[in-house]
Structures are given as C-alpha cells and as structure tokens.
Amino acid sequence: MVEVPSFWAGACLADAGDALAAFVEARGITGSWKEALQGCSVGEVAATPGVRLSARQRARWAEATPCLTVQEALYRGSPGYPVRLARVRDAPPVLFVQGASEALSAPCSVAVVGTRACSPYGAGIAQRIAHGVARSDGVVVSGLARGIDAHAHRAAARVGRTVAVLGHGLGFMSPRSNEGLRRELLAGGGAVVSSWPDTVPPARHTFPRRNRWIAGLSDAVVVAQAGLRSGAGITGRDALGLGIDVWAVQGPLGEGFEGCAALVNQGARAVHDVEEVVIELTGRVPTRVSAWLEALLHGASIDRLARMRGVSVAATLTELGRLEADGVVVRLPGGRYGPGM
User: Fold this and answer.
1) Where in the chain is the domain with CATH 3.40.50.450?
2) Which among 100, 246, 291, 307 would be 20 to 30 A from 80, CA to CA?
3) What pLDDT digit, counting tens, does each position of 40-54 carry?
C-alpha cells in the first residue's frame, strides 16, 4: 500500500485539477509538482489570483485526510504521469493505478466507448476495432462498464493490452459482473486507473468526470454506439473539445445510434470500414486487411479500387496519398504499392 498526503487526496476529492494548474502557472513551477508543492495549504491555493475554487470544493479539500492506495499514485507534473492526460488543463491531480502503469503511456492509445444497452451490431463493431488496435500493439482505453466498454476490453485483452478508467475508487467494482474482466485485463499487462481515492464508492456524481479522462488518455476516440443522452456521447464531445480525433459509428436508424449521428454533425468522422479505421488509428495494416487494400497490394488499377470502394477515382487517389504520407503504404516502380510497415 502507498500513502497519499492529505493535500493531494483532498485535491482529488474536490476535483481541483484546474485550480492546481492555475496555482502552478502563477508560481512558475516546473518539474515535479509533488516536490514543489510540499507544505502548501489549501488556503494558499485559494488565495492565488486566477484560481477558482467554490466554497464546497475548498471545504472538501481542507477536510481531507491522508489515504492509502492499492499500488501506485501518479502525481500530476511528476515522471510517469501520462503526457497525453497532462495536456488537459483540468486533469486529475493524482491518478490511482492498479496494474502496469506504463500502459498509460503507450505509443498508440485509442478509446473505444459506447452505450451499456448495446445492439449486436454496435458490439461487433466495438470488438473488431478494439481487436484490431490491440493486435497492432495499440492500447485500448474504455470505462469497464457493461455493454460496449466490456466488449472492447474483452476483445483487446485477448490479443494485447487495455486500460480501464473507473468512475469510483480502486477498492470497488461497478458493475460487479465485470470483476472477472478486470482480472483478465490486469493479467494481460493492462491497467485499471481512477481519479478518485480507493475508498470512494460508486455514486451518481463520481462517474461523469471519468468520461473526460478516457478521452484525455487517448490519441483518438471511437464511439461504437451511443444514444442522444449517453456517457459515451460526453466522451466524444469532450474529445472534440480537446482537439482529439473522434470516430462515430452510424448504425441503423432507430436502434440507438442517434448520439453517434450527432457527433458526426459536430465534427466526428463516420466509420465506414473497420479495417480502414484501424489503419488510420494505428498506422499499420492489420493481418486481415480490407478487400480494396488487399487488391491494391496485389496491383489492382485505380479504376478498380474506386469501384470496389464505391467512390470516385479522385477520392481514391486522395486516400492513397494520405496512406502513403502516413507510411501505411509505399509507392513502388510501375505504379504499384507495397505495405509501408
């Protein structure tokens, strides 16, 4: 067990990531926040110009006591804290980690999220994308909830690593039915993380913020299925607001994909071909490539590729240029293409 000082435990309970960021900026602090802020009080933070703390936040912070965590605590501004998440201004002051913390800083990290009440179609898309990302050495991030999250974690854990972001402390599991899945992803070199101290139980107010941290830990977010009022929709909107690429599956009308359609209208990219999305996300052609890419690598003409994709020759040339620029394919003599990886 590792002890977390009351100053930091309270900052987590008060959701004071933004306040701490403003305090650090005002002080001109660089390097380890934990060392630089040793001995600081809540009153000092609250009295600093530019820091915004409500009376309720300040009270929660001031009343906190030291807490114990099961394995590891990553302090914001310290080595080991995920660089991706640190770019989010209001990122958690501390991440409580169980499992392999290095999975949080993998070269490729993709969130796959969606509704708990998913359809077979949505579940299938989530599984295929998560499997493809993990098989290409990417890490799949999700929320360990029922439905799409569980399908994504399970598919990724079979072939690679996956990270679960909890909406409560590490000392709990909600839903209980995913306890086995939690053990499976930990055994496979993944990690379970939370912005809440271990003793914080699941409650209505503890879950919404974790959607933002799922986005913050990822290079891109795939929303496999989401209704108009969905936590996955929140994750997608947070990601768009943070400048993170978002992909959304537009499923059959009237079957719970309205939130995905809304995300596409707000700037998300629509998922049309799973294999192409995996290539875009990971930069690698999976073992099982899409039919048109396989035809490309076997010397098919541009006209034939365009017909296979159902788009114009110009659109196909644009896509080939993008794949070549990303290193997914390389142009060979005679107008042929080969795999870039």
Assistant:
1) 102-275
2) 246
3) 999 999 999 999 999
Q: Which CATH number fits domain 102-275: 3.40.50.2300, 3.40.50.450, 3.30.360.10, 2.50.20.10?
A: 3.40.50.450
Residues written for the chain: 341
So what's the pLDDT on residue 288? 47
Only one residue has tokens 């309205």, namely 258
Report yes or no: 49 and 5 within 8 Å, Cβ to Cβ: no
- Give pLDDT tens digits for 116-136: 999 999 999 999 999 999 999
All residue ranges of the chain with pLDDT < 70 are 284-290, 309-310, 326-328, 340-341
Question: What residue type is 287 in one-letter code?
Answer: T
Locate CATH 1.10.10 in the chain. Answer: 289-339
37 Cβ contact partners less than 8 Å away, ≥ 6 residues apart: 7, 20, 23, 24, 29
Query: Could you tell me the two tokens for 294?
Result: 């396989």
Q: Return the exposure string of 212-230: e unless at least 16 CB atoms fall within 10 Å of the residue's CB, then b.
A: bbbbbbbbbbbbbbbbeeb
pTM for the full model? Answer: 0.83
HSE at residue 328, side-chain half, CA atoms within 13 A, is: 25
Query: Which residue stretches of the chain are H helix?
Result: 6-13, 17-27, 33-36, 42-46, 55-63, 83-86, 120-135, 148-159, 179-187, 208-216, 231-241, 258-265, 274-282, 291-297, 302-309, 313-325
Is residue 106 within 8 A of residue 139, CB to CB? The reply is yes
Residue at 313: amino acid letter = V
The pLDDT of residue 285: 56
Q: Which fold has domain 289-339?
A: Arc Repressor Mutant, subunit A (1.10.10)
How many CB atoms within 10 Å of residue 143?
Answer: 28
- Whole-number Cα distances in Å, 55 to 46, 148, 186, 258, 326: 10, 38, 39, 38, 49
Q: What pLDDT, on the 0 to 100 scale, is given for residue 327?
A: 65
pLDDT of res. 182:
98
As a whole number of angstroms, the distance between CA 179 and CA 301 comes to 51
pLDDT in the model for residue 228? 85
